[in-house]
Amino acid sequence: YGFNGFFMGDVEHGSFMEWSLVKQDLNSSKCQVWHEECCYPSEVAFVPNPSGQNEDDGVLLSCVYDSRKDESFLLVINASTMKEIARAYTGFRISPQFHGKWFAP
After folding, report:
1. DSSP designation for 93
2. Which residues are listed for Fe cation binding in this entry (predicted)?
3. What is the value of pTM for the model shown?
4. Would the annotation count 35 as a binding residue?
């Protein structure tokens, strides 16, 4: 496999508090990043395309906290391009997660 998966971190801003979603190609060492100011994504879930041909053919789902609105949203990203497909705001804040676990703030 050419990709090591998807991880959270901030490679562009150097701050632990400004999170990004990062996809790294292990063959070329190139990274693709989704980042939005004041938004803090959770760990992603990869949903493969059932008829996909490439290992990154599918979508990523992440629950993201938007501190500007004090509200969370479900983020849907094209896993191949790391471009946002859709977002759906919840109307409330969802507590931060770590490996699928929920923690109260």
Report:
1. P
2. 99
3. 0.79
4. no
Residues recorded for the chain: 105
**Per-residue tokens: 37:** 């100011």
Pairing of strands 84-89, 71-78: antiparallel
Which tokens is 15 given?
């701050």
The tens digit of pLDDT for each residue in 8-64 reads 555 555 554 457 888 888 888 888 889 998 898 988 888 999 999 998 999 999 999
Locate 19 and state its tokens: 């999170």
Q: What is the pLDDT of residues 49-85, one digit of tens each?
A: 999 999 899 999 999 999 999 999 999 999 999 999 9
Q: DSSP string covering 5-73, please?
A: EEEEE-TTT--TTS-EEEEEETTT--EEEEE-TTEEE---EEEE-TT--STT-EEEEEEEEETTTTEEE
